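ok so i was messing around last nite and threw this chain in just to see what happens. nothing serious, just curious
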Amino acid sequence: MSRRLASTLLVSVVCAFLVGCATGPTYSSLQTEFPRVPSGQGRVFFYRNALYAGSLFKPDILIDGQRVGSAVPGGVFFVDLPPGAHSVFCDQQEIADMHLVAGETRYVSLDLYSGDWGLWHVRPILVDPDQGSQEILGLSYIHQ
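result:
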């Protein structure tokens, strides 16, 4: 392989990776600017750590059948919802009946894994609030 071809391939791979990941201000730099959770509602944060693998794969996230955003690598966003049971769905995987209480904040990690035939999938996982609140600090806030 010629040097020029190798350089072109390297630049292409780097550009593809950068296009696939969230960019912008981090959650920690903006967290004081977010509005309070509306009265009578709860807040759910969705986040996906940045990984090289599967960075161009950004499946939709659905709550109760409605699209609320995408699983962007290195990104975090939130949705305010009324209390009660909610179904979270992403890439053929589901958290059935996540229960939300008014004033509560929940965290859903969007974990990448390799499935059959080496295809990438994203699985929503409800995580402990202490863990989730720490894991989102360095991620980029994305507007959905």
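not much to say yet. The chain has a mean pLDDT of 82.
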